[in-house]
Amino acid sequence: MIRQEAERKGCKLSQSNSQTNDDDDDDDDEEEEEKRKKKKPTRKSGAEKPKQRGRPRKSPLKEENAAANGIAAGGAGAADAPVQPENGTPKPKRKYVRKQQRTADPPPDEAAEEPPSEAGEEPEPGGRRRRGAAKAALKYLTLLAKEVLSHPSDDPESKSHPGKEDSKSERQTPKAGKRRGRKKKRADSDSSEDKDFVPDVEEEVDPMEEEEEEEDDEDSETDSDMGVHERSPAVQQRSSTSVSGKQHNGLPFSMIRGIWDSAGAYRKFREENHSSWLFPEWLPSTRDWNAVPHSDSGRYVPQELQSAAFSVSREGLSKQDSPQLRLDRFCSLPAHRECWDMVLFTGGPVWALEWCPTPDGAPCRQYVAVACHAGMDDLHPVTRTSSGPGLVQLWDCGELEYNCRPDSPPALVYGLAQDKGFIWGLKWCPSGAWEPPSSNRKASVLPRLGLLAVASSSGVVSIYSLPHPDALLASNRLTSSENNRPPVFKADAVVTLKLGAIKAPRHESGLVLSLDWLPQKPHDVMAVGFYDGVVGLWDLTTKAALLRVREADRSLSLLPHRCFLAHDHAVRALAFCPASRHLLATAGEDRHLKMWDLRRLCDPLMVQKRFLTNEMCWPLTSPGLLIAQDCAFVAKGNQGLHFLGLSTPSYYAIQRNTTVWSMSYSEWLNCVVSADVVGELILSILPQLDHSGPLVKRNILRRFPICFTSMVPREEKEETAEVEEEGGAGVEQEKEQSRKPDEDEEVQRKKGLHLQLDTYKEGVQRSSLHYADSNVKNLGNLEKRSPWKRMKNTESTAKVNMDESTLAALHKVRFSPNMSSHVWLVSGGQAGLLRLHCLRSLISPNARKMIQESRSHFSALHSTQHHTERPTQEQQQDI
């Protein structure tokens, strides 16, 4: 025992001092061999332990070489053993080489017969050759290049065969690291053995990927906009192959994908929540519609006989003539031969505007209801109610299509006169009120166009059943408008919504400033907001005797079944939630934004104090509200149109430097457009806001200018028109900078004298309007186009003179809610001019296919049904 302990200590001493001590003693040789095997149990030869499948040896040292060289080989191995834990190769690289060698899958005999290392290949402390790691890295880069250059359609096949070499190389690409959720779908039979390899490689690649994401906006927008954590292979393949580059009319795939998803969701919503026939007892009759004599119609129509002088310049049409034009009252211009835009003059400042809804796939004409003030300089106090003449104009815009130019200009078909004061708001019944104009009914019953709710200054809301124009004019033997005198009718409302009780009507609530119709069938609830902060809810189908009041003139009035004080001041906007009939959002002049559960009105569900809100919209596919804000109580740089997320972060959709009077959101296009006090129409394509957080970089590239309105003094009209045609604001800024200081001050002084106006007549005598339209047929290369630069300038650095006349202001803008004409947009404002634009660039092949399918379905449905006097049984069941 003493001898063995001494020999063991001697061996340890010889190993630590040097490797030159050669001992020929057989006992010492056996002890050294025993120790080497204990310290490195995995370095066993193939005779002692069968080699693992696909695992090459890490050390070139062989047992046969150790036996041939005696203690020299054993000493070298013993000397390497204590050095390996201190200066050993990092684990990631060892795993890296092992994975690449395992991919080749060499036979066991070749590993045993591995040639010795060359002179230039220095062994590392772990026993691995340095050149082998370099070769493995080169092989990995070669496989990566092949995978990038290969066709993407190989990806599903490679996923179905995880044992192939291509599938492994695809899982190691940096591109796969960018795709969120793809690491969970990695399938590998030896994942337990080389699971440390992939995370280590990702740690080396992640910094480069982050830099690439900062440079590549399209990829980052796609990852953030789609936001799908677990997607099917088909969706993964489509997203990986379609996001690289401009896909449709200059729009990247991320924006087109959002439009497709929103249109599909809205189509499904209309199929489930819209009805074909509702309110069958509210039908128009010839007894209720009486023509107003021309001698009396003058008190209802607007007073202005001719519009202000205006001109239109269009981007992309170089050196075109833009003469000054004037339109007579109730006249219009035909559609432009290339841009398809149209102009009409209503006769007064426009403050209410709505499209008439039609069924999906119905080949019908499109109508717009318009309400304007009688005088251009009229001011109406909101603190008290008033009565007087008012007029609702119904304009026929023709069969607006997405793929062809309108063949006829807009025309005023008839006007609806009423004596309940000026009109602040209009709202059509969302569905179930339209029927074909060729419907056969009794002689006294007219085919119904729709149900229109009119909010007037007397504090009531009147619902009218509007007939088709052809049937109404034929019954009265009248023609369309002649000599600026359109046919004007007075009709009895089918129902009038009033506050109060049977014996105690309430007149202290003031004007009706906001209203909304329940978007889900049977559309039986109407919400109305008043000046004193009260919100009333009316059940339109109630049979309760205490809520139905028959007036002295035999007209029907409804009382609210529920009222509550929503705000301390006027209710400026309200909107129903399209996903639930029990949720209502309100915005008041007290700067509070509240959400209510109509089943429990004691307390609001949410309260936020932000700013003054002019209009509000609740998108179908987004958990939040779109809000158009006033410039009051808002910090600079935070004005415009916001998406206020309820469960997701908020999103700044459109940045403006002035008050946004109106906004309109299109469920078909997932777009929102704003109209502001300086007369600019700005379109924004929203990201997909239905998941956590829109991580959108450079969202300014999602905004597009549609039209700019400017007031131009008469003596500078020709010069400014040329500037707008050649390049817009950019050229004008260069020209302004090149002027001398004295000339600049003189021009500004003259402009101030000419544009600080008091009345409308002074404005039209000294200045004219200029409309600068953008080319919306293609939305590519935005940053290089002058309208986009002008929009960017007005967002931040432009100064607005609030002392100038608001003749260029736009008060209302609306997208068409109908499927066949959903790319059409109408806007109007202080000048009384209504303009229609067609956003053809947003039409995609999916939208065309959807429209064709709806038309085929509508034709097949109505071809089998004969038109009768009464609705069919299927229509009655939808009620």
TrEMBL record:
<dbReference type="InterPro" id="IPR015943">
    <property type="entry name" value="WD40/YVTN_repeat-like_dom_sf"/>
</dbReference>
<dbReference type="GO" id="GO:0005634">
    <property type="term" value="C:nucleus"/>
</dbReference>
<dbReference type="InterPro" id="IPR036322">
    <property type="entry name" value="WD40_repeat_dom_sf"/>
</dbReference>
<feature type="compositionally biased region" description="Polar residues">
    <location>
        <begin position="234"/>
        <end position="247"/>
    </location>
</feature>
<feature type="compositionally biased region" description="Basic and acidic residues">
    <location>
        <begin position="187"/>
        <end position="198"/>
    </location>
</feature>
<feature type="region of interest" description="Disordered">
    <location>
        <begin position="1"/>
        <end position="252"/>
    </location>
</feature>
<feature type="compositionally biased region" description="Acidic residues">
    <location>
        <begin position="21"/>
        <end position="33"/>
    </location>
</feature>
<dbReference type="InterPro" id="IPR052416">
    <property type="entry name" value="GTF3C_component"/>
</dbReference>
<feature type="compositionally biased region" description="Basic residues">
    <location>
        <begin position="176"/>
        <end position="186"/>
    </location>
</feature>
<dbReference type="InterPro" id="IPR001680">
    <property type="entry name" value="WD40_rpt"/>
</dbReference>
<feature type="compositionally biased region" description="Basic and acidic residues">
    <location>
        <begin position="732"/>
        <end position="742"/>
    </location>
</feature>
<protein>
    <submittedName>
        <fullName>General transcription factor IIIC, polypeptide 2, beta</fullName>
    </submittedName>
</protein>
<keyword id="KW-0804">Transcription</keyword>
<keyword id="KW-0539">Nucleus</keyword>
<keyword id="KW-0853">WD repeat</keyword>
<feature type="compositionally biased region" description="Basic and acidic residues">
    <location>
        <begin position="148"/>
        <end position="173"/>
    </location>
</feature>
<feature type="region of interest" description="Disordered">
    <location>
        <begin position="715"/>
        <end position="752"/>
    </location>
</feature>
<feature type="compositionally biased region" description="Basic residues">
    <location>
        <begin position="91"/>
        <end position="101"/>
    </location>
</feature>
<feature type="repeat" description="WD">
    <location>
        <begin position="564"/>
        <end position="599"/>
    </location>
</feature>
<feature type="compositionally biased region" description="Acidic residues">
    <location>
        <begin position="718"/>
        <end position="727"/>
    </location>
</feature>
<keyword id="KW-0677">Repeat</keyword>
<dbReference type="Pfam" id="PF00400">
    <property type="entry name" value="WD40"/>
</dbReference>
<feature type="region of interest" description="Disordered">
    <location>
        <begin position="857"/>
        <end position="879"/>
    </location>
</feature>
<feature type="compositionally biased region" description="Low complexity">
    <location>
        <begin position="134"/>
        <end position="146"/>
    </location>
</feature>
<feature type="compositionally biased region" description="Acidic residues">
    <location>
        <begin position="199"/>
        <end position="224"/>
    </location>
</feature>
<dbReference type="InterPro" id="IPR019775">
    <property type="entry name" value="WD40_repeat_CS"/>
</dbReference>
<feature type="compositionally biased region" description="Basic and acidic residues">
    <location>
        <begin position="1"/>
        <end position="10"/>
    </location>
</feature>
<feature type="compositionally biased region" description="Acidic residues">
    <location>
        <begin position="107"/>
        <end position="124"/>
    </location>
</feature>
